[in-house]
């Protein structure tokens, strides 16, 4: 009874917007639908958690490992909740990078010394094979730059956020379809998949396993950070073993969802396809500005189904008005949805196979544009031709 009543209410809200073809919520009859009532309710909870995210992010733990003068400068900075990373390079001025800041801010007018770098190294965990370390109990990541002798001469101290922009993608999680997030480094992909792991495990009651190569999703240490909720985590001894741990997660732990960050090798791409064919939902990220970059990347192209050259018959070539040799998608994509994160508040959602087929035929794909307004409302423009 309650279900039918809710359905009638949602339909009455959505139908007029669909007829007007304006920015709207999606139709219940169109895939993927959006349940407006639950969406609004969750958006309010997500906004509330964002207001408290500064405490959850444990910024003091990151500031504590920095030189005293830099720590004091950052603690007094009113925009510290926008901080992305602090850069300490030997012989250079220390810098801070902020969200939506076109440049970097210098934190003082004297260069970083080797003694300061060594003091930081004493306060953090051990570096792995990918030159990344962490601070136990937090989500912050420390990456090293080494000289030819293997000595650390530079550090990138990246802030780990406990809360992401889950309201931008909440409606897609109900379908159990795999999602690939694509974006440049630093745009917030890891924060998003971390929040998704919490929502899928705690809100949607899924069995979620995170394959955490650099302890970046679940934080440093053997006890995962509370930000991942009830999701379980498999740590990866070495980055080269990430694909093996992905398969191990499926075979040993019966997950309904696997979370994997920074898919970057052919073995990992093959593991994604294997996992998808076993009926497990995948949430993954890859570096790239947009879908076209994944298509052109020979290592990652299988994430969108792969690309192969085929020879058309004369009749088919005439119908398509093209040459006889064309590029086509060779297989189904293991990720039915691909989301381009251009900016933190501006996303483009692709139905992966449709968009790939359109691009390979020289057409502009129809996409959903999702953006957040200054009033923290998410606006969805459905099936707009991508610019």
TrEMBL record:
Domain AAA+ ATPase: 175-323
Pfam families tied to this protein: Spore_III_AA
Keywords: ATP-binding, Nucleotide-binding
Name of the protein in question: AAA+ ATPase domain-containing protein
Molecular function as annotated in GO: ATP binding
Provenance organism: Solanum stoloniferum
Superkingdom as given in the UniProt entry: Eukaryota
InterPro entries registered for this protein in UniProt: AAA+_ATPase, P-loop_NTPase, Spore_III_AA_AAA+_ATPase
């Amino acid at each position: 009874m309650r279900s039918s009543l809710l359905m009638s209410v949602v339909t009455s809200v959505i139908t007029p917007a669909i007829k007007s073809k304006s920015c709207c919520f999606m139709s219940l009859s169109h895939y993927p639908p959006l349940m407006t009532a639950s969406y609004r309710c969750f958006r309010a909870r997500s906004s509330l958690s964002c207001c408290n995210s500064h405490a959850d992010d444990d910024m003091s733990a990151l500031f504590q490992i920095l030189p005293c003068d830099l720590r004091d400068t950052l603690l007094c900075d009113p925009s510290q909740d926008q901080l992305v990373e602090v850069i300490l390079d030997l012989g250079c001025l220390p810098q801070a990078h902020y969200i939506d800041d076109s440049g970097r801010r210098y934190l003082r007018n004297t260069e970083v010394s080797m003694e300061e770098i060594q003091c930081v190294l004493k306060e953090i965990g051990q570096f792995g094979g990918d030159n990344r370390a962490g601070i136990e109990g937090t989500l912050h990541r420390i990456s090293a730059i080494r000289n030819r002798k293997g000595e650390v001469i530079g550090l990138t101290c990246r802030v780990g956020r406990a809360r992401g922009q889950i309201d931008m993608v909440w409606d897609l999680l109900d379908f159990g379809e795999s999602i690939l997030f694509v974006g440049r480094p630093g745009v917030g992909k890891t924060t998003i998949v971390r929040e998704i792991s919490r929502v899928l495990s705690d809100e949607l009651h899924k069995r979620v396993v995170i394959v955490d190569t650099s302890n970046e999703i679940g934080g440093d240490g053997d006890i995962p950070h509370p930000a991942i909720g009830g999701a379980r985590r498999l740590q990866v001894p070495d980055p080269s073993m990430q694909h093996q741990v992905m398969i191990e997660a499926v075979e040993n732990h019966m997950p309904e969802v696997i979370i994997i960050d920074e898919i970057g090798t052919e073995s990992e791409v093959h593991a994604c396809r294997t996992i998808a064919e076993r009926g497990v939902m995948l949430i993954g990220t890859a570096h790239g500005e947009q879908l076209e970059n994944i298509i052109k990347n020979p290592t990652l192209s299988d994430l969108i189904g792969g690309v192969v050259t085929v020879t058309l018959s004369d009749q088919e070539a005439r119908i398509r008005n093209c040459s006889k040799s064309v590029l086509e998608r060779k297989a189904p994509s293991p990720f039915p949805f691909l989301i381009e994160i251009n900016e933190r508040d501006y996303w483009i959602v692709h139905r992966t196979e449709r968009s790939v087929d359109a691009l390979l035929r020289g057409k502009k794909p129809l996409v959903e544009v999702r953006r957040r307004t200054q009033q923290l409302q998410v606006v969805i423009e459905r099936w707009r031709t991508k610019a």
